[in-house]
Records
---
Amino acid sequence: MADCGEPDGPGNKDDITRSKNEGKELTKEEKQRLRKQKKHQKKQKERKNEKGPSETEKDKTPVSLLPPPQPVATQKAPSALPAPASAPIPVPASAPFHSSPAPSPADKPAKSKAELKAERRARQETDRAAKQPGSSSSGIKTKVPLSELNPVVKRLPEHVQVDDPAVVKRLAKKLERQQIPLRSDYGYKVSLFSHLHQYSRKAPLTQLLSIPSTVIHPSIVRLGLQYSQGIVAGSNARSVALLHAFKQVIRDYTTPPNEELSRDLVNKLKPYISFLNQCRPLSASMGNAIKYIKKEISNIPSQCKEEEAKTKLLTCIDRYIEEKIVLAAKAISKYAIEKISDGDVILVYGYSSLVNNILCEAFEKSRKFRVIVVDSRPRLEGREALRRLVQRGISCTYVLISALSYILPEVSKVFLGAHALLANGYVMSRVGTSQIALVARTYNVPVLVCCETYKFCERVQTDSFVSNELDDPDDLMVTRKGKTQLENWQDVSSLGLLNLVYDVTPPDFVDLVITDLGMIPCTSVPVVLRVKNLDQ
Amino acid sequence: MELQAVLMAAGGGSRMMDLTYNTPKPLLPVGNKPLIWYPLNLLERVGFEEVIVITTKEVQKMISTDPKVKLDVKMKLDLVCIQEDADMGTADALRHIQQKVKTDVLVVSCDLITDAALHEVVDLFRAHNATLSMLMSKAHEFTETVPGQKGKKKTGEQRDFVGVDGTGKRLLFMANEADLDEGVVIRKSIMRKHPRMHIKTGLVDAHLYCLKKSVVDFLADNKSISSIRGELVPYLVRKQFSKSTNSPKVIDETHQNLKKNDSNISSRDEELLHLTQERSCWNDHRGDMSDAYHGGRLRCYVHIMDEGICYRVNTLAAYIEANRLAPKLFDEPAVHPSAVVSERCLIGADSIIGASCQISDKTSIKRSTIGVSTTVREKVKVTNSIIMHGVTIEEGCNIQGSVICSNAVIGRGADIKYCLVGSAQRIEPDGEHTTASPHLMSKACSA
């Protein structure tokens, strides 16, 4: 925030120092300049008021955090004015940060000096244009589109910019500051996906850490290992495991002297989150859970005692899991069971804990249906779904995704799980889901997506290339009859192995989304997000 | 804190009494460093800052007083002494320090020389929430002739049978040939859960174990277990598949006794862990209807090293082999800077000369280790030998394939082949000694 204060800050400071040195007489030019700055800041205040009261309220807090500028009591009024007036200047610059969505939990560094200079120049242009006689209204009009232009400078998350060396260097520096080792990419990346990370499971991050891990809490190290080895997989399981680990961190946390729990604990969590991100890119549900925890921690009043604060946080986490995951699953099952009728043939893809839950509950409520489990390599998660359904006694059929169009004429409904629901109604789920939705649409089979509201994400994506996850390419190798054909795939220069994890399904292929708020069409996701934001 | 390191340095070295009757095993020089330095160096490299060293009073005295025993490690060493004659097994020693153990432990033996990646063992321990995780290595044949042994080496060691599952990580079965009467007996419950088992025999147990804290507490209650390797590990491996409700009651009870105060915390956490496992789509096996880990709570894992150095220096052959390989483990210069080496001597590239040595002219030293403060006079040929500290070798000697212990004096012109010269012995000048003369080893012999 202090950086944004710089554009006018040095100018003011120079004035003040010069006037301090040369006495209280300000020269004519300096008076003119000060007058100009005053006018300019007043106009910015107007512009700020136009944006709406809520943002200014939000932005008032960073303003109050700014250190009060040089207390020059002996100065004349004009020099005193620019100082507090310089405070609103960071406001429009910070407003874009607040209003723009923040999909990745990674830190957003302040704008670079070049961008600040460009903003300053743009503002000066508008001022000059506004100074034209009788163009005050048009001046305001021209400012509005500019204010929209300024906040458009959104920062891309670093995990989709791996081929940009500057971004990689910045990430390396940040990790070094947090004392977390950098995980190096592995193998040849297919050119279309060279902007994403690709790690090898045989090179875990723990080999670069000291063994009794002191920098990172042991439960977080254990969690990172379980993520990278796939022991905890699936968006719900990962979120619950993350919150469980955070509970242990909070329990073992002690506030250092002269620090506040609300600020220090958030800073403690940041390196852990970077570490987990290095082990496996965070999912949308995990991102939302982290945002919730950070908000809860920062909302702890400073006079709260440490033990009290900790128990409060622990109960918050328990409540979050209970409400958003366990009860949401119950609510979704209740709605979904209405949609399952006797004699149905339901198709599921891969393993979705929620869809499995629904089917088991429906079976307990004595609905008569049978299930077709569609599976795909290399994960073959459908086997686990199959095992759990058959264990309950549900009659199942198992096919691979290549047999989908063969089996689809028998199917009456398709139930899909989701990893995240994007703001434009697209469903992000395991790779292969969009195929299933597409073929089901062709056969006029209804597709129902089941997703809890905590997985709703403010990101917008229309294709699966922009942001995805690349898994270990060695998983694609299979050994049959003692021979592994792809054993030396790295030696073949024109061969690349691609192991995608997610894909996005457009909303035209999805007929209904069943959430804990009810059954909504895919296009209503932004409404839910808006309602959620207002609640919070 | 995540792990506490415990170094067991109270062993007697019963299988190499020739060397250890004078010097305690942890302080035997290997590559001119005391044996205990190697595991300490391993722990330090990996990132430990404190180690609990369980040793005897004699060793503690020697470490603190003897200038030749330099343990330049930066870690904090917490030396715990036990009586030498108490005949304590490793598990007894662990029981002795139960009060100091506050978290999971990593137990290392003082005679382990390895360059293994410890994170592999600890990762298995962390990721699967295992009760026991250990390190093993493929055994290498010892190629050097051992002094004092006539003829071929007899396999006095009894074999260990180690059963692992298909992935090679989960430990299913462990038994020593001595405990088996006629054949290897494997319970049906194990076969039902793990139909494919690989049984290996050529493995060396590195005696490096990651144990949960509850195991240490369990040891405190069960005083009958006295050795980790001999009794505790096979017990834990067997308990994985015990019929009693799939979870070892004894270990569980102590676990619960400790958590009585914060029982609501642990039960809520257990619920979350259970929820995680329920929602996660991972299973460690497939083909049957059971959940991950077959619902068992006790799990034992092993990491088997394929390549790399891993030796347990508990026999003379291992000691000699370790001396050959020791220079590869650290990058110090082979010839210590304080040694006085004259120009006209031939020192092979794979020899180590200790500090304050004096090597005179026309000597030839090949594939040998010369200890600290040793004097080697002219025209001496030393090949394939280990010379410990403070030895004086007079002119014209020829030493081949032998081990000369500390403070011995070899008279001039002596010819020693494949012998073991005891500590502070004198070899008469112009004597010829080969393997056939065992009297060199006894302390009582005067030459």
Note: Chain A has 19 helices and twelve strands.
---
Amino acid sequence: MANNFARILSGKRNVGIMSLIGAGSLTATFLLNREHVTAGAQVRRVYPASADYPDLRKHNNCMASHLTPAIYAKLVDKATPNGYTLDQAIQTGVDNPGHPFIKTVGMVAGDEESYEVFADLLDPVIKERHNGYDPQTMTHPTDLDSSKLKSGKFDERYVLSSRVRTGRSIRGLSLPPACTRAERREVEKVVVDALAGLKGDLAGTYYSLTHMTDQEQQQLIDDHFLFDKPVSPLLTCSGMARDWPDARGIWHNNTKTFLIWINEEDHTRVISMEKGGNMKRVFDRFCTGLKEVERLIQEKGWEFMWNERLGYILTCPSNLGTGLRAGVHVNLPKLSKDPRFTKILDNLRLQKRGTGGVDTAAVGSTFDISNLDRLGQSEVQLVQTVVDGVNYLIECEKKLEKGQDIKIPPPVVLQLLPILVQDVLQPLPLLVQDVLKPLPLLVQDVLKPLPLLVQDVLKPLPLLVQDVLKPLPLLVQDVLKPLPLLVQDVLKHLPLLVQDVLKPLPLLVQDVLKPLPLLVQDVLKPLPLLVQDVLKPLPLLVQDVLQPLPILVQVVLQLKVPEERVPGQVTFLSSSCIIIRLSSTYTSQSNRGNQGPVH
Amino acid sequence: MPFGNTHNVLKLKYASSEEYPDLSQHNNHMAKILTPAIYERLRSKQTPSGFTLDDVIQTGIDNPGHPFIMTVGCVAGDEETYEVFKELLDPIIEDRHGGYKPTDKHKTDLNADNLKGGDDLDPNYVISSRVRTGRSIRGFCLPPHCSRGERRGVEKMSVEALDSLSGDLKGKYYALKNMTDAEQQQLIDDHFLFDKPVSPLLLASGMARDWPDGRGIWHNDTKTFLVWVNEEDHLRVISMQKGGNMKEVFNRFCTGLTKIETLFKDKGTSFMWNEHLGYVLTCPSNLGTGLRAGVHVKIPNMSKHAKFEEVLKRLRLQKRGTGGVDTAAVGGTFDISNADRLGFSEVELVQMVVDGVKLLVEMEKKLEKGQSIDDLMPAQK
């Protein structure tokens, strides 16, 4: 296609070539890797870096927290292939010192390559802003399968409207802080062309800011769709408002439930919304619409900026990953006055805003409640977080209405675990879970006669872990049920040391296990196998016992309780408990089989 | 280079017509002059320090202007801007400065003795007198374009020069970022303090970047000579006092400026100046003398008179509110100053103000007595 060839010939970026031959985004990611991005236009520098280093002593934003003179000196001579420089990226953070209570990001990207060329600064900024997400070691999950969303319909006595928004950038064109007029017009053209191909309930019309009639403008204002030239210095100082209103516009479908802003803070902002509480439908339309738009631009040889490390690339680092903000306008007259409101929101990973959007105050008791996070969690996960959270808030409100008390929910677990631990916890044998569930006292009694070795293994663990194991029955039941959550909840009570130690799990396991017998060390190292390998030094018997245990349990439950106790045999006094025989051979009737070594 | 798009050599791959700004709603000097053809010829150029056409015109694109007020719509990033982008700036200068041609020479005259009169403006009407101009230090980029290092360099050099002034010019520098609350309050009470600009005309040019780094106010102990560092220009020099003794104000102005210039020359630099454009400043509207000499004068009757605008026009004067440019007059008190900057010398401009204000006060007095002013109507200067 003419577009592709023109772009390749212009030598803009290698990605153009790779997309043409269909190598896909992974290769594109590889090409965008730092080492492959060469510097662009020569940066004019008259003074040494130290003379140009900004005065950030009164500043409180993420950029100022991480821009050391050393990093500044390293990056200030660099430019992206488009010629975008560090000084331009940080200008908004220099010009807007911030607020003691609100920590803004303080920098923007001028193009996709900014995230590579200035990674020495952007990575720590991203890490701080996104709860420790490390772009160098972690991958971001993208999931736009809205069918996975559960319970997405809210009580409409409380939820007045539901909305999901995100942004998308067109690969190959600079972002709003840096784009030329021609690039901005190209973004408009590409997107408007694609949107013209939407059909059915997504079919709609484009209203260019430069050409709209007064009547159209008034209608858009009444619908609360119209966006104005930004006035916030956070935005204007980055240069994104240049040439306003050239190539800016609003597209929306005929039913006014799917809306796209073109060339505001990002190339596109995509919004799905409805009155009422049907978040499921809003999210369905959101995902369908996004995928359709993507398909339509791909037909013409374009694609969205996306990579595995950072997800969808947008102007502001705070919007990386999903760029998703799913929210509701919800009326919570009683809950909003409860002093625990903020803590509840925090634990649910939600934020509140006024109904005018960011930096506005709530009107009455109606709040805009949305997800805090953007990166490290998929779209489905984030919307689920909002759904679960808002449902919880409504439950609280209802309780308060009835004069009942409410509880602060436990903090939602952030699944930003290193990949190893994630992979470890996810596929834990269902068996182990099912096995351990109905076995309260068993574990205690199984562990009691365990050889000193195992006890010695447990000894150097923080006393807390032992205390955790002590009341194991109830703990195991309640705690192990949703196993990933459990581990984190258990870990919560561990001394910070243990938590921090577990984070880089491979190293941790090594360090924790150093004083342990090599056997146990080797056993515990590969955590997926942990459970199985932990059981290794246990008497084969125990293993054998536990493995076919479900069947055994079922079988045993059908048996009568034996009269006398046999050493090595474990019997429970209550008739509702289960009898376990530490026996390596069984028939349904045997009760005096070998006991095998019990270590 | 304040904006991310300006050093984008890759943008030259787009056709000029694709990059040409939409100026259909615009009313400023830049929009009037900048044709697609001129844009095409100039867009690949840049000054030695890297200032490009888009840098020059960004403020004019972002501020379409007003049907009644004609703004300039462009700025210079360094001294060479006026050379490299002549094709655009010469016609703008001609339009803005009353037909000043590219071949014209500008006369500089800072000899205060050449001023006739000016010491006897009636203090019952003339509340205060003031002369201001700007100066740029050769070798440094101008506020829209300078780096932090350059701006700090300008500050350092200026403060060194100002600190060596003596006699009634001896004074002190207050850096914006270091001033104490007490100092700040005093400067506000003296009406000396300048704030971060809010006008989009200024902000869109990039001159407010890194505020308040490198900015400050110097004034002499008697508070009659004031220098702003790194606001809209490298230096804004202001001489002022209460009352109508414009001669004294202008004396101090010329003395101070000449002394400062000598101090800079001793350091091996000078002010940006040339024969054609006089003193070079950020905004093309301030070229030549960069001088605005004015008074705050009480003329409630005159200002309501039908011929007020006509009189001002003939006297080559302009009116502003007492808050400065873009403010409204309060209670019949106006800021009256020269309309011209380029093509007349400093002495000539101050003379126009002195003579013109004298006439306005006479007219006011006549109107107070209910008399006509028709016989006082001046000829077009």
Note: Chain A has a mean pLDDT of 76.
